[in-house]
Design brief:
3 helices, 22% strand
């Protein structure tokens, strides 16, 4: 009788060990698949990050903050560039409040509306580009600016375009 009990215990132990082995093997294989998928996903995301960083670098090429020569030019003239950049933008935005819209915009607005500058990007120490709209029509301006002093700036529209309605 004792012998049968030991034999049953032995068989039960073998089955339990076999079950544990198969279960552990499945868990291990599942973990390997998960790790492989995560590595592939990480690789894809790293490629995407690199692509986006390249795009940001390319887009920031014509930007006064990244143009060391333009920045140095203004600093050599004695200007505080970190204060000057917002001041230039504010001067253009201030002209939006004038009656009839911004005088830098050479196009008439739609009835009852005014042409206003929406966004500005300083390209270097001499030029800036901005877009404008009245809610229906929109366009862009290329403006030459000259810093007369820390509180005085002169603007001259070099070219402009108005996009056609579609």
């Amino acid at each position: 009788m004792k012998q049968r009990i030991f034999m049953y215990l032995f068989i039960f132990s073998l089955l339990l060990i076999l079950f544990q082995y198969v279960n552990s093997k499945n868990v291990f294989e599942d973990d390997l698949k998960t790790i492989t998928a995560c590595r592939e996903n990480t690789e894809t995301l790293n490629d995407s990050i690199q692509t986006l960083q390249d795009k940001v670098f390319e887009m920031s090429y014509f930007n006064i903050e990244n143009n060391e020569d333009a920045y140095t030019y203004l600093e050599n003239k004695g200007y505080d560039v970190n204060a000057l950049i917002p001041f230039i933008k504010d001067e253009i935005y201030k002209q939006n409040t004038e009656k009839g819209g911004n005088p830098l915009i050479p196009y008439a607005a739609n009835e009852g509306k005014t042409m206003l500058v929406n966004s500005i990007k300083l390209l270097n120490h001499k030029w800036l580009i901005c877009d404008f709209s009245d809610g229906i029509f929109w366009g862009e301006l290329l403006i030459k600016y000259e810093v007369e002093s820390q509180t005085e700036i002169r603007f001259e529209v070099i070219d402009s375009l108005l996009y056609p309605l579609q």
